Amino acid sequence: MVPLQIGRIPSWTESFFASELAFAVLFGLCVLEGIMMLRFMPSELVVPSALALIGTSTTEVIAIVVIAVVGTTIGQFLLFSLVRCAGREYVLQKRWFPATESRLDRFDGWFDRWGAVAVAGSNTMLFVRGLLTIPAGLSEMNARSFVVLSALGSLSFQSILAGLYLVGGHLVV
């Protein structure tokens, strides 16, 4: 295992994490992650970086996880709403969206097979995190149900990342 490589974090982000704006920066990064626009930093490094740079007291860990869950859930809800209003083709045409049509077809299949619970499950998994937001936005899924399931999946994901960091203090990167 290799220690968390702070060098992979943009220097401006690192300096903000070390400032009095740390929690606001964390929130902003998490909203970007949720709407799938976080391109300058792997989403798997957001919470561990916050822990490394802000602190690991019980209060700080809880605050970091809560802010991360709220931020990513808000971002995913924005994407869910955009898809509901603009449609699948609109999102696929945008350069910021990280998936191809064939990959999104696969996620449509997951959503068809597992239903709404796939939203929470996918939010817990690396590399597919948040991609079921698109099929959910196109479905008849209730927005409130989406928010709850998105938040549960994000809570699971962020808690696992925080736990791994706290137990080992290292990440494989």
From TrEMBL:
It is a multi-pass membrane protein. It is found in: Cell membrane. Keywords: Cell membrane, Membrane, Transmembrane, Transmembrane helix. The chain crosses the membrane at residues 21-41, 61-83, 146-167. The keyword Transmembrane applies. The keyword Transmembrane helix applies. Residues 46-162 form the VTT domain. Pfam families: VTT_dom. It comes from the Archaea. InterPro entries: DedA_domain, VTT_dom. GO terms for cellular component: plasma membrane. This is VTT domain-containing protein. It comes from Natronomonas salsuginis.
